[in-house]
Structure formats: structure tokens, C-alpha cells
Amino acid sequence: MAVWLIALAGESLADRQLRSFRTNPANRGQVCRSGLWNYSRHPNYFFEWLVWVGYFLFAWGSPGGCFTVLGPGIMLFFLLRVTGIPLTEELSVQSKGDAYRDYQRTTSAFIPWFRKTAGNTKP
């Protein structure tokens, strides 16, 4: 239950932070790097996936519960390879250009983690 609650709270927080950033006219055309967005380019996707992991953990003890691992597995595949990150990243590069490319070089795509410094980025 703790995983599910943390995931729900994280997803809500990430969505709130992005909404707050977007409603400020001074941020138009800028990249959100505040709050959870400083540690992941898609914290809302990460926590959405973690919600699915929570469902899997809930079901684990029930008959056939081990098969529910397919839920988070399929969700992860779609987020990382199909409709989630690839499409969002493409649109963000188109709309924000080099600012977003720099964000890609310094910030984890999915799992919230510490930012890379300019010296630690690959060309």
C-alpha cells in the first residue's frame, strides 16, 4: 500500500508542479526544471508506472497474482518506447529547441535522479 500511496502522491505533485509552471506567463517557451522536474524529465510518467507496480504488489498474494506483473511491464514498455516519452520528447524538442536538448543531456528521462553537470554529459 505504501508504494501505491507514494506513487499517487508523487504523480499528483509532479502534475501540480507542471501546471503551476505552465500557468506563469513568464515561463512561456521555457523548460520546467523545478521540483520533481529537476530530477526527471517525466516524473509524472515514473510515478504513473509506480502506481501500476503498486497494483501488482496488491495482487501478488492472490491466486494468479504473479501474472499481474504484465500490467506494469506493458505500461513501462508504452511509456519508454511507444507513446509516452518518445512522443513527448519529440514535441518538446520541436517547441523548446536547444533548451530542451540541454535538459535531455543533464536530466534523467524517467527515474528521478540527480542532475548531471555540464562536465559529466556526453557529446
List keywords for this structure.
123 residues, mainly alpha, single chain, 5 helices, 0% strand
> Overall mean pLDDT score?
94
User: Which overall shape is indicated by the principal axes computed on the Cα atoms?
Assistant: elongated
Number of strands: 0
Q: Which value, in Å, is the CA radius of gyration?
A: 16 Å
Uncertain segments: none
Largest sheet: none
Order of helices and strands: HHHHH
Tally of DSSP helical segments: 5
Beta-strand portion reads under 5%
Structural class: mainly alpha
What are the SSEs and their pairings?
Blueprint: H1 2-23, H2 43-59, H3 70-82, H4 85-96, H5 98-106
Helix pairs in contact: 1-2, 2-3
Can you tell me about this structure?
The protein has 123 residues and is an all-alpha fold. The protein has one domain (2-114). It contains 5 helices and no strands. It has helices spanning 2-23, 43-59, 70-82, 85-96, 98-106. Helix 1 (2-23) runs antiparallel to helix 2 (43-59) and helix 2 packs antiparallel against helix 3. The longest helix has 22 residues, at 2-23. The radius of gyration is 16 Å and the shape is elongated. The model has no long low-confidence stretch (mean pLDDT 94).
